[in-house]
Amino acid sequence: MNTPPSPSGAEHTDGSPIRLGALVPLTRPGWAEAGRHLLAGLDLAVREVNDAGGIDGRPLELVVRDTAADPERAAAAVDELADLGVAAVVGEYHSVVARAAAARADALGVPFLCSSAVLDALTEEPTEWVARLAPAQSHGWRIYADFLLGAGRRRVAVATQPSVYWTSGTRVLRDHLAPRGGTVLELDASLTPEALCDALVDHGATALLLLVGHPEPAVPVVRAVRSDRRLAEILIGAPAGQPEFAEWAAALGEDGAGVPFLRYLPERLGPLGERVGKELRERLGEAPSFVAFEGWDTVAVLAAVLRSHGTDRAAVAASWPRVAVEGTRGPIRFSRTPGIGVWQWVWAPAQVVDRDPAEPDRLRVLHAG
Q1: Are 287 and 274 in contact (CB under 8 A)?
Q2: Count of CB atoms situated within 10 Å of the CB of 24
Q3: Are 34 and 242 in contact (CB under 8 A)?
Q4: Who's near 94: CB < 8 A, 6+ residues apart?
Q5: What is residue 59's predicted lDDT score, i.e. its pLDDT?
Q6: Residue 198 burial (CB < 10 Å; 0-12/13-18/19+)?
Q7: Which of 79, 142, 176, 299 has its CA 20 to 30 A from that of 277?
Q8: CA-to-CA distance for 34 and 243, rounded, in angstroms?
Q9: Which of 283, 291, 285, 286 is nearest to 329 (CA)?
């Protein structure tokens, strides 16, 4: 019988599992498809670590909690996982949820390696307990703004819902576009799709960015804009990545092609990325998104930390600045970045891509940052 896990995440020498808590959106209103890809990456990496002998002979065990895009649920999960004796917490896709988890992890003294959430202000104050693999929103969305400028799209409208994430993204776009002759008009996504189309025509917008949830209201907005002859030349964009996943293509078909979004992959994967990508494709039954690679890289970092520094939580957190791990998308190191209160990988590769209108299952790289 295994010894119960120590609440402090302290060392064991009896071969009992090293537990990692995993926060993943697996049910609505969470973006469940993103959660499925994130969990596939986490789980594949854990299995590979264990197949190679674990951490000094001890297997990793993933203790998964569904956040369902609920910040309070995520914070409660961190409490529960801490009591279960996890060495660290990993994961999460939604920024507002990751922010709640990071605050709780910081308060409890539990290391949290955030896989996929990008909000710059992941914590209110600088913390030693939290590190992040995903690039900050200000970095990725500036790359997206550069793409818009390069495509000659300077009159930008954003259809947005109330959220600190969408508000932050709008600010990044406006701050980057305004000095370069661009404008950003905010439109309330609660407008009917027809009223939103009228507003786009009145404004003379050359791009509409969907800063909204999927499938509602993103899908009806795209259908309305695509069917409005007055807007035949407008670019529809989705910087947060909604078109990355197969359910976007399934819901919209040809209407969902040609919608540029951000993804955090290099133009070409190296040998490690190719191998992991092949394994992920077999597990998922479809092409892995960048989110699946983020999951795999998360466990690769934690496994290296646990081998070098042990399972004591304070030792894990103290190791962030000494991480040097080869990930699927390049060498991973963490550093301090102005305006960001967590240890940050600077930066994962970023691209603007879309689904090819001639072949919607194929992704085209439009711009690299």
Answers
A1: no
A2: 30
A3: no
A4: 25, 30, 31, 67, 69, 117, 165
A5: 98
A6: middle
A7: 142
A8: 11
A9: 291
Q: Which of these, 297, 286, 298, 351, lies nearest to 33 by C-alpha position?
A: 286
Handedness of CA 128, 129, 130, 131 (dihedral sign): positive
Number of H helices, E strands in the chain: 11, 16
Q: How far is CA 119 from the centre of its chain?
A: 9
Q: Distance between CA 340 and CA 257 in Å, rounded?
A: 34
Q: Indicate the DSSP class of residue 254.
A: G
Cα–Cα dist 99/211, whole Å: 19
pLDDT digits (tens, 9 = 90+) for 140-198: 999 999 999 999 999 999 999 999 999 999 999 999 999 999 999 999 999 999 999 99
Cis previous bond, 271, omega within 30: no
The proportion of the chain whose per-residue pLDDT surpasses 90, expressed as a percent, equals 93
Element of type H or E holding 48: helix 32-51
Task: Look up residue 130 and give its two tokens.
Answer: 């939290």
- The string over 340-362, giving b where at least 16 C-beta atoms fall within 10 Å of a residue's C-beta and e elsewhere, is bbbbbbebbbbbbbbbeeeebee
* pLDDT the model gives residue 14: 65
Mean of the pLDDT values across residues 315-331?
A: 98
Q: Give just the sign of the alpha carbon dihedral 52, 56, 58, 64.
A: negative
* CA distances (Å), origin 180, targets 22, 149, 177, 184, 221: 42, 8, 5, 12, 28
Distance from first CA to last CA of the chain, Å, rounded? 51
- Report which of 279, 310, 294 is spatially closest to residue 347, judged by C-alpha positions: 294
Name which of 343, 294, 347, 297 is nearest 321 in CA terms: 343
Count of other CB atoms within 10 angstroms of residue 369 = 17
